[in-house]
Specification:
335 residues; Arc Repressor Mutant, subunit A; alpha+beta; H-NOX domain; 3-stranded antiparallel β-sheet; 16 helices; 8 strands; globular; 2 domains; 10% strand
Length: 335
């Protein structure tokens, strides 16, 4: 099954509300709930997202709904992996890493690149079926790519070109899509983003202020989503940190804005320990990936913060009594 992190449609409800439509009803119309969007690292069916965007565009009477949603977002909707991409030595290295690891954000989408004269051209290959089409998903995906490149450059450069095959109709793009309007071409032969080839040698820009704001917003959402459970907040933070390899108590406490000793006391008050939560989080994520066959066991181990696959496999067997492959085979057989 093709899957995508729910964080990809961050701001969906707010945008729908701005047009007087009902986001809860739209979500229910494709078999989703607001609770599934609460954690940005929760995986949902890619086809459901495609159907949701088409349904929202129709309900809001906005044929450029996907671009409008992307315009409200930053590359943080791609998750913590995007932070690793931006810390590569050159923009080309960052883009190459994004092409290689995009499956960690979405399963069913590939980013392809090729040199075209003095330009570097990017195209997405979509591998999913949708009852309502994927025009809005195309808009959202290319909007995400534009946002990511803009942030690597450090500005919304006019040299970036975004071509979409679909028509825009008679709309005031300057007011509706100020972030993209000057770089947008509709009714193109293909969908693509194109940037100057010379950009590849640049050092990526890292917006530390936006990064800090992202974490502040993230913590606020955690407090609203889990007002009475510090353990659930910690698990959510761990889910973001595991891929980086730095998931220490001190790091989690820093993100939550408390001292490590204070965090330990709060855990003790709820009858929990940090090591226990780390194990439970790893097991939950591992089972989710294995159940959906979302990545290889080797990649799964690395994304759970293990330096060696053998160590992960040994731990997983201690948790479940089965090896990762055995657990996956049993899940598929009983499903």
């Amino acid at each position: 099954m093709s899957l995508i992190r729910s964080g990809a449609i961050a701001g969906f409800s707010e945008l729908v509300n701005s047009y007087g439509a009902n986001p809860v009803g739209l979500l229910a119309g494709v078999g989703l709930t607001s609770a599934q969007l609460r954690d940005p690292n929760n995986y949902i069916a890619y086809s459901q997202v495609a159907d949701l965007l088409e349904l929202a565009a129709e309900s809001c009477q906005q044929m450029l709904f996907g671009l409008q949603l992307a315009q409200r977002q930053t590359s943080t909707v791609l998750g913590d992996i995007a932070l690793g991409w931006s810390q590569q030595p050159t923009m080309q290295a960052a883009i190459d890493k994004a092409c290689q690891q995009l499956y960690l954000h979405v399963r069913g989408l590939e980013l392809q690149q090729r040199v075209e004269g003095g330009m570097l051209r990017f195209e997405f290959a979509f591998m999913l079926d949708s009852n309502r089409g994927i025009q809005q998903l195309i808009q959202l995906s290319y909007g995400h790519l534009c946002n990511f490149i803009d942030e690597l450059v450090g500005a919304d450069s006019r040299e970036l070109q975004l071509s979409l095959h679909q028509s825009a109709g008679k709309q005031d793009l300057a007011s509706l899509l100020p972030r993209y309007a000057s770089r947008l071409v509709f009714d193109g032969a293909d969908n693509f983003v194109r940037v100057p080839l010379r950009w590849g040698a640049r050092k990526p820009h890292v917006d530390t202020a936006s990064l800090a704001e992202h974490f502040r917003h993230y913590v606020n959402n955690l407090e609203q989503s889990y007002p009475d459970s510090v353990t659930d907040r910690i698990k959510s933070v761990l889910g973001q940190l595991l891929r980086s390899g730095d998931c220490s108590l001190a790091r989690v406490a820093a993100i939550l804005g408390v001292q490590p000793r204070v965090l330990q006391k709060r855990l003790a008050a709820q009858g929990a320990g940090y090591s226990q939560l780390l194990r439970e989080t790893r097991q939950q994520i591992a089972e989710q990936y294995l159940a959906n066959n979302a990545m290889s066991v080797t990649d799964l181990a690395l994304n759970l913060g293990y330096a060696e696959v053998a160590v992960f496999s040994r731990h997983f067997k201690q948790w479940t009594g089965l090896s990762p492959r055995q657990w996956q085979q049993r899940y598929i057989a009983t499903r």
